[in-house]
Amino acid sequence: MSEHPHHAPLPEGEESPPPGTRAMSIVRWVILGLMALAALYTVALAAFGAVRPVSSPKEGGAADSSHAEPAQATTRYTCPMHPQVVSDNPGQCPVCNMNLVPGKPGAASTTGQEGQSDAGDAGDARRAVPGLVPVDVDPTRTQTIGVRVEAVRRETLSGGLSLFGRVTADESKLAHVSVRVSGYVEKLFVAEQGARVSRGQPLAAIYSDELLVLQSELLQARRWGGDTAAPVRERLRLLGISPADVAAIETSGEVQRALTLHSPVSGYVIALNVAQGDRVEPARELFAVADLSRVWVMAEAYERDVAHIRQGLSVQLRLDAYPGEVFRGRIDYVYPTLNPQTRTLPVRVVFANPDGRLKPGLFGTVEVALPSTEALTLPAEAVIDTGEHRYVFVEVKSGRFEPRAVEVGARTGDRVQVVAGLADGERVATSGNFFIDSESRLRASVAASPSPAASKAPPPPGAAPDCNVDFDAKGAPDKYAQCKACERVHRGMGTMEADCKNAIPKPWRQP
């Protein structure tokens, strides 16, 4: 059987490829090309992202504003009990395990940098209040907490000061009666306190051995004649014996057993310190007589009002003893020093008292009339006074309140003068400002807290001893149990878990 030439075997390496080989080769090259394109695309994206310039806020302008907005709108989460804990993600507080609650978007910028920029826009950094930042209060919450806002306005202050006062005797018309020799009270002519006496009226009869001797010398000197009696008269006068009594002794020519004390002024006996038969000494005060035809009212001015008090200002006195009546006088003297106990300045006001109605010891209100002045005023309740700072919350725009330090002056009724810190027409919170103050302090503490990364308190693996690795469950079962208890109790509380485990006495494993 003959063989056909086309059936002859081909040389090695020249055989025909199997069916479909060419199609598979094309597919393979297409896949390789696609993979190369993908790799080039990935490299290009990485290179573009690595070298793309990041503009600063000053250089980027509006081009970067679209990228900044999502970051500002990020919701931050904080712990209601520990505002220093701030996180970008919801979760639990590492301190107390409470659920974190979402705050306002962009809270960090609102309480931090924006607060500083707002203060800078105000043009006076000295008006910033330490520990406070601007806050935003939505209208619903404003109505809930009862926030009211009122504008600062310029008006005429024609009010005055209201001081506390007490009626006292005029010290220039007060007389103290005493003796200048030792002796005994033989008779009291005025034996009751509060009695009215006239000038020269007898008060008491005093017996004294020394006075008896001087009377005898006076009579003997008169018998000798000449000027020998003059020195004895002068000695009796210096001992408090009136010239009338000395003349009576010389006229009668007899020694008087008891000599009489007379009242030096007309008035009322406001002190009686002696009884009939008492022994008296020169240092002892027997009577105090006050002339109450004119009295003093001692008023107390607070330190903040000292600058407005001066001699000659008109004063009105109102007493509870005489409702509806007004007594008029003028400031007679402003004392040079403050009372160290009450930190007030004594002010003396003089009142005529012809009918004796102004009795020493009465308390009342002294109203001082001040000159009219033109000044900025605001409600007194708008000012928060911590003792260290005085400040208000200014509504810089609807719902946004900014703390502002102020200096205040005189107070008239329910309004107070603004010396510095505010301008005419600015609006301040007059009610509910303590709620705004609390919110401002809370946000300031949040802004001053560490970064969120530092606040995610759970320590990384290995920061605390591992119970299963570092503790020998068989050799030291009690310490191993203490380690597990630390994990159960303090897990999620930051370094407290590590501190608890480290407090377990070593060694943790048997040698």
TrEMBL record:
The segment(s) forming the CusB-like beta-barrel domain are 294-369
Q: What are the UniProt keywords, alphabetically? A: Ion transport, Membrane, Signal, Transmembrane, Transmembrane helix, Transport
Asked whether the UniProt record includes Heme among its keywords, one would answer no
Which residue ranges traverse the bilayer? Answer: 26-48
SUPFAM superfamilies per the UniProt record, alphabetical: HlyD-like secretion proteins
All copies of the CusB-like barrel-sandwich hybrid domain together span 175-289
Compositional bias per record (Low complexity), positions renumbered to this chain: 446-456
* An example molecular function term from Gene Ontology annotations: transmembrane transporter activity
Please give the family membership noted in the entry.
Answer: Belongs to the membrane fusion protein (MFP) (TC 8.A.1) family.
What is the official name of this protein in its record? Efflux RND transporter periplasmic adaptor subunit
Where is the organism placed in the taxonomic lineage, from the top? Bacteria, Pseudomonadati, Myxococcota, Myxococcia, Myxococcales
